Amino acid sequence: LGVLFAVNSVTGVWNMIEARHDPSGRTRRNLHGLSMLLADAGFLYTAALAGAARESQDGANRHRNAALASIGVATASTLMMWLWKD
């Protein structure tokens, strides 16, 4: 799963760099790219909380909340790309 997110992040940044001079849809693309990177950082944080999730209910709650927040950001970003047309 970590490799999938790493590859997705690298290709996303690569696409952002290649499209930086195209003015068409720039705001939408940049907002999507940055929010997906934020979601990836959230998933990395969620993975870091996994050890504490095994040790206590409070740790499990923090892990779950971080995962749900990251899923929410990624879902909102994807929906934005599907629904916001230039």
Q: How large a portion of the residues is in β-strands, by DSSP E?
A: under 5%
The major pleated sheet works out as: none
Number of strands: 0
Give the helices and strands as they follow along the chain. Answer: HHHH
Give me the number of helical elements.
4
Distance between the termini: 33 Å
Q: What is the multimeric organization of the chains shown?
A: single chain
List the uncertain runs.
none
- Average pLDDT works out at 92
Apparent shape: elongated
Report the structural category: mainly alpha
What radius of gyration results from the CA coordinates? Answer: 15 Å
Helix content: over 70%
Task: Describe the fold and architecture.
About 85% of the residues lie in helices and about 0% in strands. The chain is mainly α and about 90 residues long. Helix 1 (about 1-20) runs antiparallel to helix 2 and helix 2 (about 25-50) runs antiparallel to helix 4 (about 55-85).
Brief synopsis:
With 86 residues, this protein is an all-alpha fold.
